[in-house]
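Hi L.,

You mentioned the student needs an example of a multi-chain input paired with its predicted structure. This one should do, with 242 residues in total across all chains.
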Amino acid sequence: MPERIDNWWWQDFATLGSTNDKAIELSSNPPAPFFVVTAAEQTKGRGRRGREWQGYSGNLFMSLALPIATQDWGQLVFVVSLSLLETIKFFEEGAQVCLKWPNDVLLNDCKISGILLEKGSGEYIIIGIGVNLTAAPQKLEAVLYRATSLAAEGINVNRIDFLCAYLKHFTKNVSLWKTEGFVKIQQLWQHNAKGLNEEITVNMPKEQKKGIFRGIDENGLLRLEHSGMIEKISAGDVFYKE
Ligand code: BTN
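Structure written out for the whole complex:
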């Protein structure tokens, strides 16, 4: 049965193939302007670039749906990841959590979550988020970066408590974004970003670039300083100096 969490219509399923698929389906006839779908078990979870997202029970699988103008989608992912960081800190104030471009959240230097933005019906964007609450992926080839879970780092939270806290932080940050513009989100994201003003390597499909990480621009592109200039990068995997 659907329920409400603050301004959000919410439905939890025992099992789904992918919460993103369910949210995309619902967006053709939205049950409310803002809605969220969760599943206790996800059997066909998708990750970025066609990767699989493993569905350990106890972890959180959620898809948020809301109408956002297409030109703002590039900025949205920073609102999503910043809200994840704040939610983890809400449960454990001193947690060593930071952000990795473009959309990873690291806890004790290991990946704790995954974000997959997909198009829904009309202007609906589907924000698929997986949070490793109790277990991290074991298949090493499936993860580019070491992964962990909140439980393994001593933070015990159940998926519904995490969902409720996340929706509060996300809603607050969306309104910050709308009232103060992306510059505020950009500042907060950069403040929590790993490796700001340090040397990084960016692996792109056909090349690798090294340089100094100078944050993100107004569209969320990575600013890499090298050869006396700033290059803006739209896609790639970031690696830090050991
Ligand atoms: C990544 O590759 O890092 C993104 C992973 C996104 C996984 C989440 S789990 C909930 C939602 N449903 C899906 O099928 N994928 C996303």
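You could point out the following to them. Residues 115 and 129 are 5 Å apart (CA to CA). The first strand starts at residue 3 and ends at 5.

Best wishes,
N.
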